[in-house]
Amino acid sequence: MSESLFIAGILAVVGGFLDAYSYLLRGEVFANAQTGNIVLLGIFLQKKDFAAAAYYLVPIGAFAAGVILVELIKKKFKHQKGIHWRQRIVFLEVILLGIVGLIPIGDWNVIANVMISFVCAIQVETFRKVHGNAFASTMCTGNLRSGTESFFHYWKTKDRSYLEKALKYYGIIVLFILGAVIGGFLSGRAGGSSIFLCCLLLIIAGILMRQEFRN
């Protein structure tokens, strides 16, 4: 279940939502993939605007810290019975995003962005495969590359397994876009508390994984 297309779809919706949320409500920061923030960091360094550069350095550092935390949790809990380490990560995401929803929009955006970037890092590091194929739930570049590559192989060989693989990747991208649409819609209406929808989706994902890890 943890590598199922259904769980990947839920995570992709959450990923798209968080990118729209952080950009629209939390100071035009991309919380998921850090490429945009790294580019903006370089631009402001070139302008010698070090305060603005530091603003974008914070989520980059938070993302790196999230990756390290996942590796530490996996090392400590991977072979323990009871709650699976991936479930621990999901419920940690729920807690952190719940806190973000309580942070006022404005002067506290930096803290919110740190937490969102941290959540995105632990999610993308924890859930890395769909049916054995590498994927990302918080960014689309790799999925687009893999999906298009698979579609090309299908076009050349007519092997339907390549087509199925391509459609899975494109489906994840569509769900990511859907998450961004929902994030944009709810952010304009519910404000900072709209992120609680992500908490609900992650709780559902954690419950669905429970049966697998009990077996």
Summed over residues and divided by their number, the pLDDT gives a mean of 90
SS-based class: mainly alpha
Principal-axes geometry comes out as globular
Largest sheet: 2 strands, antiparallel
The fraction of residues in strands falls at: under 5%
Low-confidence stretches: none
Q: Over all CA atoms, what is the radius of gyration?
A: 18 Å
Number of helices: 8
Q: How many DSSP E strands?
A: 2
Helix content: over 70%
Terminal residue distance: 11 Å
**What is the ordering of alpha helices and beta strands?**
HHHHHEEHHH
Order of adjacent strands in the largest pleated sheet: 1-2
Helix and strand topology:
Elements: H1 5-25, H2 35-46, H3 50-77, H4 85-102, H5 109-126, E1 129-130, E2 133-134, H6 141-157, H7 160-190, H8 196-214
Antiparallel strand pairs: 1-2
Helix pairs in contact: 1-5, 1-7, 1-8, 2-3, 3-5, 4-5, 4-8, 6-7
